[in-house]
Amino acid sequence: MAGATGGTARSTAGGTAGEPGTPDVVVVGAGQGGVETVAALRARGFPGRITLVAEETALPYQRPPLSKGYLLGTVDRAGLELRPDDFFSALDIDLVRGDRAAGIDRDRRTVELDSGRELPYGRLVLATGSRPRRLPVAGADLEGVRTLRSLADADALRHRLTGGRELDVVVVGAGFLGLELAATARTLGHRVTVVEAAARVMSRAVTEAVSEHVAAEHRGQGVRVLTRREVVALHGGTGSEDPGHVRVVELDGGERLAADLVVAGIGALPNVELATAAGLLVGDGVIVDPRLRTSDPDVYAVGDCARFPSPWTERHIRLESVQNASDQGRRVAADILGETGPYTAVPWFWSEQYGLRLQMAGLTAGHDEAVVAGDPATGRFSVFCFRAGRLTGVESVNRPADHGISRRLLASGTDLTPQDVARPGFDLRARAQQRPSPPAQHAPPAQHVQHVQHAQHAQHAERPVHA
User: What's the start-to-end Cα distance of the chain, in Å?
Assistant: First the structure.
């Protein structure tokens, strides 16, 4: 994998001027959203200068495999790359690596880098991502306490998890990232405990039916899953043990868990410092309008750092997913080229844990009715979520066809009702091929179809998920 070991790396001699009258575009952040933005600009024929600023020295890479395949050794560094090095040079994209954006001068329309280099822009795209929340307890700075966001984080975890010794691993937080890490650590043969403060795993992300199924899978694999428990302190070794390395996780109630490695997966904070210093409107993310423009119309924000008005929730939200970052990047590229319009893509996510493939289409936050189709006992089922009788999202476990069809239905609009799903012999594929019809009358649920009223949950703002 090509890459510099320090300083500033450039993938082009970069700096050829664009056509007269064409604004230079600078994209800060080389994750999924940033790379998709520059790729879409060139794919649509943008003739101007494009600069992509990457704080890390590595080539831009995918994050979802970091918690799974990369730790397991089934995905190598080359397999992580979003684009090969020659992609950027071939398209005359100036990829600046290992140089952090230090400030934005909106009056002069420049971005200043740590190296002192100044980048002029006509349009600026912030794709600054997010960072893991740190455990707010004593001992969180001990050696052996980790988070996972970057390639460097993953390398450190892989070193510990593949060192040949069975470890006591404590994962704090049972969201998607935490559970993926727990599954990976258990697959590698370690003793794993998951500690979650909420009443159930993934409580902010999925319905109770999916939550219960995933928790049962982890317990069946030998993971100890503790809910309604909180970490109150971390302790280092005593006596001849290394006092600077974590050895004990103390929980509320006094229980103490042995720990050689602690990984926190308790959510993420958007990186808004650059926007804040530039005087842009922020609030749990960089606030943008339906076109993904910030309070300065020449500055956009995409991906994990952007808080945008969602037509699916009728409020501003922030989503951390590959799909959202990618689609927003493409939407911004179109907007820069004059193809203006609101961002309306259907959100979708996924997570893989052991043999489970969990896929979600839409946003199910605030649903008031849920219908389970299929039999959870077989490990293959979907949960259809409705609000005021309208389908808002579908969660599928090992039913990829349901996921694909649900995405299409949500995108095109559907009159599917809870009664339709609960009807004996319900076939989503056949239903999707029908022309829209008036809502069907309520039918009693079939065997292995559960009709659940008032099952509400809040949508996560965490990266799964991986989509």
Answer: 24
Mean pLDDT of 394-407: 97
Q: Which amino acid is residue 195, in one-letter code? A: V
Residue 63 has pLDDT above 60, yes or no: yes
Q: Could you count the other beta carbons within 10 Å of the beta carbon of residue 239?
A: 5
**Rounded to an integer, what distance in angstroms lies between the CA atom of residue 174 and that of residue 165?**
25
Phi, psi (rounded to 5 degrees) for 219? -65, -35
231/315 Cα distance (integer angstroms): 33
Q: Which amino acid is at 458?
A: A
How do beta strands 390-397 and 356-362 pair? antiparallel
Q: For residue 314, what are the contacts with CB-CB under 8 A and spacing of at least 6?
A: none
Q: CA-to-CA distance for 184 and 69, rounded, in angstroms?
A: 8
Q: In the block, which residue shows the tokens 């090969």?
A: 84
Neighbouring C-beta atoms of residue 221, cutoff 10 Å: 15
Burial of 238 (0-12, 13-18, 19+ CB in 10 A): exposed
What is the token pair recorded at 112? 């200043």
**Residue 459 near residue 348, CB atoms below 8 Å:** no
**Reported confidence tier of residue 313, pLDDT bands at 50, 70, 90:** confident
Tokens, residue 299:
């500055």
CA distance 245 to 139: 9
CA angle 363, 136, 166 (to 5 degrees): 85
**How many residues are present in the chain?**
467
> Residue by residue, what is the 3-state secondary structure of 136-154?
CCECCCCECEECCCCHHHH
Output the pLDDT for position 419. 95
Inform me whether the pLDDT recorded for 20 exceeds 60.
Answer: no
DSSP letter at 416 equals -
Which residue did the predictor score with more confidence, 430 or 396?
396
> Are the CB atoms for 234 and 139 separated by under 8 Å?
yes
CA proximity to 326, closest of 34, 26, 27: 34
Element (H, E) at 243: none
172 closest CA partner among 267, 278, 55, 236:
267
Phi, psi of 332 (to 5 degrees): -65, -40
Classify each residue of 318-350 as buried b or exposed e, where b means 16 or more C-beta atoms within 10 Å of its C-beta: bbbbbbbbbbbbbbbbbbbeeeeeebebbbbbb
Paired residues of 41 in beta bridges: none
User: Could you tell me how far CA 274 lies from the centroid of its own chain?
Assistant: 21
Half-sphere CA count of 407, side-chain side, radius 13 A: 17
* Per-position DSSP letters for 309-334, written without gaps between them: EETTTTEEE---SHHHHHHHHHHHHH
Distances (CA, A) of 294 to 132, 175, 272, 385, 389: 24, 30, 12, 32, 34
Q: What is the mean pLDDT of the chain?
A: 89
